[in-house]
Structures are given as C-alpha cells and as structure tokens.
TrEMBL record:
CDD domains in the cross-refs: YkuD_like
UniProt source species: Nonomuraea cypriaca
Molecular function GO labels: peptidoglycan L,D-transpeptidase activity; transferase activity
Name the record gives this protein: L,D-transpeptidase
GO cellular component, one term: extracellular region
Domain of life: Bacteria
Record keyword Cell wall biogenesis/degradation present: yes
Biological processes, Gene Ontology terms: cell wall organization; peptidoglycan-protein cross-linking; regulation of cell shape
Residue intervals of the L,D-TPase catalytic domain: 1-72
Residues of the active site: 34 (proton donor/acceptor), 48 (nucleophile)
Entry keyword annotation includes Transport: no
Top-level taxonomy: Bacteria, Bacillati, Actinomycetota, Actinomycetes, Streptosporangiales
C-alpha cells in the first residue's frame, strides 16, 4: 500500500523471471501494472497488478513517466498451513 509514481514503461509483451507481461507500467522496483491473459479474482501475484489486456492497452496509452499510482486496500491475510479447500466446511 502507498503512493508511488510510474518510473518505467515497457511496451508490448516482455518476459521476466515470473512470466510474461503486456504493456507494463513499473511503479516501485520490479512491481508493475501490466496486462495478462490470466487475471485471477483472488490473490495470485507476487506484487504486480494484473489487468485484462484491453484495460492494460488503454492505461498504457494514458499513463506517463511520473504519473501518480495510488495503491489502496487491505493486504490479504496469509493462509494458515493446512487451510486448503479440502478442509473447508468440515467438522
């Protein structure tokens, strides 16, 4: 969470240690907002903000180096060991 600024732009498809990204807008270190073909409805990232491809295209057109990025919300709690799907709802 915090207030950041776009520090780097990477057009099109790029590949990093954690996979491929589309139209990436970096805002803190190696963390970026970027397009992805897989956008989960639950926490599934190592810190990046995954966006649907069409959304990332439009955002990339709009955002420039130095533009503000405001990250808000509550961090997701860490899962307890053994708290997988199989154990839910059973007593």
């Amino acid at each position: 969470m915090g207030d950041f600024r776009v520090t780097q732009r990477a057009p099109g498809w790029t590949t990093g240690p954690l996979g491929t990204m589309f139209d990436s807008l970096y805002f803190v270190g190696g963390i970026a907002m970027h397009g992805s073909t897989k956008v989960s409805l639950r926490p599934a990232s190592h810190g990046c903000v995954r966006l649907p491809l069409e959304t990332s295209k439009r955002l990339y057109e709009l955002a420039k180096i130095g533009d503000p990025v405001y990250v808000r919300g509550e961090p997701f709690p860490k899962r307890r060991a053994g708290a997988g799907k199989a154990g839910r709802g059973r007593r």
